Amino acid sequence: MMNHDLYKKLAEILPKEDILLDEYLKNHMYTRLGGKADYFVTPESYEQVQQIVKLVNRENIAFTLLGNGSNLIIKDDGIRGIVMNLKRLNNIHVDETSLVAQSGARIIDASRKALEAKLTGLEFACGIPGSVGGALYMNAGAYGGEIKDVLEHAIVVTKEGELLKLAADELDLSYRTSNIPTNGYIVLEANFSLEAGDYEAIKTVMDDLTFKRESKQPLEYPSCGSVFKRPPGYFAGKLIQDSGLQGTQIGGAEVSTKHAGFIVNKNKATSQEYIDLIHFVQKTVKEKFNVNLEREVRIICENGKYM
């Protein structure tokens, strides 16, 4: 049931078209999974983000920040309270050898903008489907490169609604993690330090990485990317493949026949079907090889907490 007082307060911060009620999150997530958000808000300025955070604190309202969900499963019962998405903050611009990208921009688009400006360093990101904010959140990486290699600084909003400029080393970026979730930061902007390069050489690398990605990954279906972290001494995809699990389905979710490390949303899967298949894969690999597969994909619950 709509809280008219809360809606009124949100409408004092945002245009009404930026406030959606009982909105299915699967409509906004790369995975096409997830139930409803009570309030789905899409601010258009840093000040609006700050005002929403301060409102949340004053009113003691449940609050969740979501990117485009390329590495996230939202459960079928949705998320209560206010869910914020920064997709309208998507500007990217170049200043000499610095590339500045707002958090709602796709990291793929940031890599393409670097190519246009003949800047090298972001080639590895040309196939990562997440947002810039999400890429910083988990120190995204591929093909030997990662965000921490090129990040100069970031602008964030704190849990109290204050703006901070933080150097890359203040974010504790390491393998698929950072201190952004621990500190409750909301990334607004990333400044990448790149180097001048040759357009054709940069394009050749990006074309090669794109070919590798398209030939090996099941991009024809929604998915959450690589589901599991690489276990020490093994490859998750090889273990799953050698367990005979490719093509295994639970409901509309399937272990990809193209790349065993991916679970695809083949036919309107529910989040629960997806999660059940993850558990089945983990159980089978443990039984066959005595290896524990740790999830790389995150699962978010109704209260906004991660499993």
UniProtKB/TrEMBL annotation:
- Subcellular location per the Swiss-Prot or TrEMBL entry: Cytoplasm
What keywords is this UniProt entry annotated with?
Answer: Cell cycle, Cell division, Cell shape, Cell wall biogenesis/degradation, Cytoplasm, FAD, Flavoprotein, NADP, Oxidoreductase, Peptidoglycan synthesis
Can the keyword Flavoprotein be found in this entry's annotation? yes
Q: Name one GO cellular component term.
A: cytosol
Q: Which reaction does it catalyse?
A: UDP-N-acetyl-alpha-D-muramate + NADP(+) = UDP-N-acetyl-3-O-(1-carboxyvinyl)-alpha-D-glucosamine + NADPH + H(+)
Recorded GO MF terms: FAD binding; UDP-N-acetylmuramate dehydrogenase activity
Entry's PANTHER family? UDP-N-ACETYLENOLPYRUVOYLGLUCOSAMINE REDUCTASE
Describe the function of this protein: Cell wall formation.
Return the protein name.
Answer: UDP-N-acetylenolpyruvoylglucosamine reductase
The record lists the lineage as: Bacteria, Bacillati, Bacillota, Bacilli, Bacillales
Give the encoding gene's name: murB
